[in-house]
Amino acid sequence: MAPKRTDTIFVKSLLKPTKDGGELLAIFDKDDRHPSGECFIAGPGVHEVFPSPQVSAAITAGKLAQVRLRDAKDDSEGVK
């Protein structure tokens, strides 16, 4: 089992779906510090990411919300 990362955070998109049901892109960020090397967040679900400058800017702009791990585990979409 891989060791638990302590330098990442959990986020979810705050953007609402479009009128036709499409999902808006909250962020796309390539950074080797993200668990998969990039983060692509659109639609529901909780995602584990590194708090890069782009992620921090999306949180400040109201596109993303940081959530606690406990809340992430309770999310019906699961952690991505």
Account of the protein in words:
This protein has two helices and five strands, in the order ββββαβα. With 80 residues, it is α+β, with helices and mostly antiparallel strands. The chain has one domain. The longest helix has 8 residues, at 53-60.
Helices and strands in order, then pairings?
Blueprint: E1 9-13, E2 25-30, E3 38-42, E4 46-49, H1 53-60, E5 64-67, H2 69-74
Antiparallel strand pairs: 1-4, 1-5, 2-3
- Unreliable stretches: none
> How do the strands line up in the largest sheet?
4-1-5
What proportion of the residues form beta strands (DSSP E)? 25-35%
Average residue-wise pLDDT = 87
Order of helices and strands: EEEEHEH
Q: How many separate structural domains?
A: 1
The secondary-structure class comes to alpha+beta
* N→C terminal distance: 17 Å
- The geometry reads as globular
Number of strands: 5
Helix content: 10-25%
